[in-house]
Design brief:
2 copies of one chain form a homodimer. By secondary structure, chain A is an alpha/beta fold. Chain A has 14 helices and 13 strands. Chain A has 2 domains: about 140 residues, Enolase-like, N-terminal domain (Enolase-like, domain 1), CATH 3.30.390.10; about 220 residues, TIM Barrel (Alpha-Beta Barrel), CATH 3.20.20. In chain A, helix 9 links the parallel strand 7 and strand 8. The two termini of chain A are about 20 Å apart. Strand 12 of chain A pairs antiparallel with strand 12 of chain B.
Chain lengths: ~400, ~400
């Protein structure tokens, strides 16, 4: 079976707001091989990943991503890894390639799973899809009062865990942040699992992060996520020596297996957060999960987009019984909801699982997607390299 | 003075060959602020960097690069760093952004230097532009005989150093590579500085690299470059323990200061090779040079394109007297030669220096560029986000 077509669909809300909400646009990927179809999603910046799929070759190690995918045989998991290795070699100098490959890799796993009528997590070697404790992932409110209300709403919805991030956090005074942290804890109640996401706001400033540790410990935050940019290993490590019960979390910025390993080996992480839509797909995310298990670090998915992306991000650690926390976006824009016919929802115990259904177990809703489809075109010389493809086929 | 315009010009040879020659296309950058102009260059994949300059915003941490540059004040080196920090924060989730920023940062340094009538290396704090020993950077021949001839030609041209890389090296047997290595040494003569570039061919395979060490030592190679992909820190480190007098070189794949620091701190590098057109520009390249000095590692430029890019890559270590080896492409395609009115050439002693002239000291040749200018257009919805700009203004 050979890969006949790769189609990238750029979806967007009518208006994109200048807020930390990654569900405002999406890059949906469809891969076709014979009669078989698979779906995936790339995180983020759709136009740039489209350009890297179709761009002209610069030289032998800077080819468009599609050059290493179209026409390839796809019959097994080994083929998916082989195709990824090809992309990494042939697009070595094309920085965006890892993000572009991610959506294709996800679609290839979906395609294989549908073809063999097995969930992706089974193809990955797991015997079961374990229950995960979803955390409601929301932005800090503009004021502590709004954060309090958000936390109360999350608690009343039955979530046992919540993550607050971005918004004003880290941008103002330490006292401002302390008020936000106490509001989140108050709204969530004493037993809720409280996670804090600094969104790289302190870049590499250890002192700024350190100044928040006392209150983070007071409110029993389980983790502090991304105090620094991905790759600031020395800074992560230094902070980890002082953070005590507040574990450091990070890794969403990693776009290959090496970067994630460095965060684990040299950054003092307690939680490694991987976005399958960025790191090179489910294949590489699973490599990181295996490595994390081996190193005693907890694997967590990073997801801020659709339920297709959520299922993809759950697969790599679906069978890890002790890695229970999972990111679960709860403030999705209508686009991210409309994209799929079915959704992953908490069960009676408030827990979620990667679907027990072929592939990713998520069905794209073509009619739901249509209103959000962006019409785009890229022309180089007399050649149209990209034009928004037709959804139905 | 505010930045009024950023223009990206995509240049390409009529035909792009599937070989490891990075001079086959280029992305020339022009930044205008009032009456002042500066020129830079991004490495590589022009169309993708263009897309990341102009793409629609995805969310608050995924904005097009131009959003953080246009309209900004540019009066000092501190402004260049501030603008770079803005891009890194506002385009955090846009993977290609570091490459895109690189050309803009270079152009801003050129602009400041022209305005203040100072070479960039002076603005960077160096008192002099030291002589560097250029190595002729060429591809291995298809056979040892062709490699021998290339090496003899380089020797007869007066070069004291030569680097051979890519081509068949590492793809065949150990014996094949041994023959190539002996041919290079023979052609170069016993005193020439011989550098070998494996071009990441062994990915993370330590055994494959180890199998070449004996002959690399026999032919007195000064360095072995990129036996593995950038970021394979554990593999670099393991090989460095066995490579003895053959120093490991790498770093061209780094696209931020952290990755370069990791290569130095954890990879056992003896030479760190930085492309100012990829790592985030001259600003970040200079940060790496400072760090390398501090850690006792030798800084080397990585350059495989025009003399504009060469000058940009020389500036960050121009004043470092003990860091003498410099990459000097000698098989440039006509495009890369035609791009500039003046060129950096070896002096009577066979050495080169960053120009002692305002800015980068390299004048783009608009008439020379014109035949290579690629006509491109990117449209999203009803908006044309990019159309090849006019060269003359």
């Amino acid at each position: 079976m050979r890969i006949d077509a790769i189609d990238f669909f750029y979806l967007a809300m009518p208006e994109i707001l200048d807020i930390g909400d990654g569900s405002q646009d999406a890059l949906l990927v469809r891969v076709c091989a014979g009669d078989h179809v698979g779906w995936g999603e790339c995180e983020a910046a759709p136009l740039v990943s489209i350009a890297s799929l179709v761009c002209p070759m610069s030289h032998s190690a800077c080819k468009p991503v599609q050059a290493s995918v179209l026409g390839q045989t796809i019959d097994s998991a080994a083929d998916i890894r082989r195709i990824g290795d090809l992309v990494r070699a042939n697009s070595l100098d094309l920085l965006q390639a890892d993000h572009t490959l991610s959506g294709i890799d996800i679609a290839l796993w979906d395609l294989l799973g549908r073809r063999f009528e097995e969930p992706v997590w089974k193809l990955l070697g797991y015997g079961q899809s374990c229950a995960k404790t979803p955390y409601a992932s929301v932005l800090f409110g503009g004021t502590p009062e709004i954060t309090l209300q958000k936390a109360q709403r999350i608690q009343s919805q039955g979530f046992r865990a919540a993550k607050f991030g971005w918004g004003p956090f880290g941008l103002g005074s330490v006292a401002d942040d302390d008020a936000q942290l106490h509001a989140a804890r108050e709204g969530l109640g004493p037993d809720g699992i409280l996670l804090i996401d600094a969104g790289t706001v302190w870049n590499t400033d250890i002192a700024a992060a350190r100044a928040r540790l006392r209150t983070l410990k007071e409110v029993s935050a389980t983790w502090l996520e991304e105090p620094f940019v991905s790759g600031a290993l020395a800074e992560y490590h230094a902070l980890s020596l002082e953070s005590g019960p507040v574990g450091l979390a990070g890794g969403e910025g990693c776009h290959n297996v090496h970067m994630a390993k460095h965060m684990i080996d040299h950054g003092g992480l307690k939680y490694v957060q991987i976005d399958a839509g960025r790191i090179g797909g489910i294949t590489i995310a699973k490599d990181v999960a295996d490595y994390a298990v081996n190193k005693g670090v907890t694997y967590v998915n990073h997801t801020f987009t659709s339920n297709l992306a959520l299922s993809a991000s759950l697969q790599p650690f679906a069978g890890l019984e002790l890695h229970v926390i999972c990111e679960f976006p709860t403030e999705l824009k209508s686009l991210a909801v409309a994209m799929t016919k079915n959704h992953i929802t908490p069960d009676a115990n408030g827990q979620v699982r990667a679907p027990d259904a072929p592939g990713l177990g998520i069905e794209p809703d073509l009619a739901g997607i249509e209103p959000y489809l962006v019409d785009a075109e890229i022309r180089v010389g007399s050649q149209v390299l990209y034009r928004t493809p037709v959804l139905s086929r």
